[in-house]
Design brief:
By secondary structure, the chain is of the alpha/beta class. It has one domain: Metallo-dependent phosphatases (Purple Acid Phosphatase, chain A, domain 2, 4-Layer Sandwich), CATH 3.60.21.10. Helices cover about 20% and strands about 20% of the residues. α1 packs parallel to α2, α2 crosses α3 and α4 runs parallel beside α6. The two termini are about 30 Å apart. About 40% of the residues are buried. The protein binds fe (ii) ion. Fe (ii) ion binds next to loops.
């Protein structure tokens, strides 16, 4: 058995700046405190690492990445970072030179764990909020899959499927068919796919692959399935997920870490 944390859409700004009426840095600090208390070494469910599935910052400024680094250094376990449409690859790499990149400079890395291979993909595409995996990034993914045999866990900021929220569906991952072609020969050993981008708790399957996404740590996206030109924002509770991987199951526990309601014995 193996536990890790999935966190997403942090949307950090430079110090002192707020967004939609809340301070994303304060929200992330509270998430870090919660993760350290509940899943640090010696806790009942220690997590081996944290994966952040993109939109680390809101506008990608160096000052935002510097603040992000200062906050994440409060985590008592390693963290692995990915890019989203709001990020800037060069500024990210300057601030986090130790984070893995592929041979072309995309923020993609393969992490070997006791439970299988974690493949973190870079769907950031310049000039658009939609995502994509170009031929180089797909070739990297194809090579990692070809050289491995065991279970695989995939992480992408952008989901490769429509979810019914009109504006988000227009900025999903483009050319999902190309990704599906690369994954198809390995589908039976892909145990789960984790997304960000949607700022919503969501689970299902895509072409037979189970997936989940969770709320971000800052602002959220409302469940509004009407046709509209803007993203339906909301201030639903912030969350991260404790993911438990065992031989026969992948369990995703979404945790509303700001919840203040009483806990009691039923
Ligand atoms: Fe986001």
């Amino acid at each position: 058995m193996f536990d890790f944390i999935h966190i997403t859409d942090l949307h950090i700004l430079p110090p002192g700046e707020t967004n939609y009426g809340l301070d994303p840095a304060e929200r992330l600090r509270m998430a870090v405190e919660s993760i350290a208390a509940r899943h640090g070494p010696g806790s009942a469910a220690p997590a081996q690492f944290v994966v952040a599935t993109g939109d680390l910052t809101h506008h990608g400024q160096p000052a935002a990445y510097a603040q992000l680094r200062e906050i994440l250094e409060g985590l008592p376990m390693p963290f692995h970072l990915m890019l989203g449409n709001h990020d800037e690859r060069d500024h990210f790499r300057d601030a986090f030179p130790e984070q893995g990149v592929d041979q072309n400079g995309f923020v993609q890395q393969a992490i070997e764990t006791d439970s299988g291979l974690f493949l973190l993909l870079d769907t950031k595409t310049e000039g658009t909020h939609a995502g994509a995996l170009c031929d180089k990034r797909l070739a990297w993914l194809n090579a990692r899959l070809a050289e491995s045999e065991g279970p695989v866990f995939l992480f992408l900021h952008h989901p490769p499927m429509s979810v019914g929220i009109s504006r988000m569906d227009r900025i999903q991952m483009a050319d999902a068919a190309a990704l599906a072609d690369v994954l198809a020969p390995h589908q039976r050993r892909i145990r789960h796919m984790f997304h960000g981008h949607l700022h919503r708790p969501l689970a299902g399957s895509w072409r037979g692959i189970p997936f989940s996404s969770i709320r971000g740590t800052a602002h959220q996206v409302a469940l509004d399935l009407s046709e509209r030109e803007t993203v339906p924002g909301s201030h639903e509770p912030a969350a991260y997920a404790l993911v438990r991987v065992s031989e026969d199951a992948v369990i995703v526990h979404s945790h509303d870490y700001l919840d203040q309601t009483n806990h009691f014995d039923l």
